[in-house]
Design goal:
By secondary structure, this protein is an alpha+beta fold. The chain has a single domain, classed as FAS1 domain (Roll), CATH 2.30.180. It is built from 8 helices and 8 strands, in the order αβαααβαααβαβββββ. Strand 7 and strand 8 form a beta hairpin. Helix 3 crosses helix 7. The longest helix is centred in the first third of the chain and has 24 residues. It is globular and about 40 Å long.
Length: 188
């Protein structure tokens, strides 16, 4: 059986190859064994949402994304950087935070506070940004602090894997980042 490649098929294959080469170069630059490239079962590069759905540490995040209809954001073109709270971060939330997360509008605001649009920042990039701030899609800034070899983004520490995706980078974090507008007076 002879396979004929059409011009559009060749162009798609070249595009996918270019994406994989770029992600491979980014992995080498990061030099971190916690970094991986997200792919789907069909072998194409995964989106941020697909990478999160495949991560057993992020099941609560993906449930929350579905609850408030945030899928479109995490599958958008990008680039973006997502600080993804692990399941244990959601479990450790205070009661006032859990009440905020139970309201779908507040939940969407919280999730927006974990997304930095316009940049696909690796851990290496964040380390070089010590002392700077990132603007979230929710509209508040998150300070970057490198201390004792750990990278902190706001109150959350990078605490797991880093996954390069077709539309950005996903970092596991150990805390749910609450926007100031949702923090109760007792939480401030």
């Amino acid at each position: 059986m002879k396979v004929r490649f059409t011009t559009p098929m060749i162009m798609v294959l070249m595009l996918l190859g270019g994406i994989l080469i770029a992600q491979s170069a980014a992995l080498k630059q990061a030099g971190d064994t916690k970094t991986s490239t997200g792919t789907t079962l069909s072998g194409r590069p995964a989106t941020i949402l697909e990478a999160a759905e495949e991560n057993k540490n992020l099941t609560d995040l993906t449930k929350n994304v579905q609850t408030c209809g945030f899928e479109k954001t995490l599958t958008a073109k990008g680039p973006m950087t997502v600080f993804a709270p692990r399941n244990d971060a959601f479990a450790a939330c205070m009661e006032s935070e859990k009440k905020n997360l139970a309201d779908s509008r507040n939940l969407e605001t919280v999730l927006q506070h974990h997304v930095v649009p316009g940049f696909a920042l690796t851990e290496s990039d964040l380390r070089r940004m010590n002392g700077q701030k990132l603007m979230t899609s929710q509209g508040e800034e998150l300070p970057i602090v490198v201390e004792n070899n750990a990278v902190w983004v706001g109150s959350a520490k990078l605490s797991g894997s880093e996954v390069l995706t077709s539309n950005g980078v996903v970092h596991e974090v150990d805390d749910v980042l609450m926007p100031k507008q949702l923090m109760s007076k007792s939480d401030k």
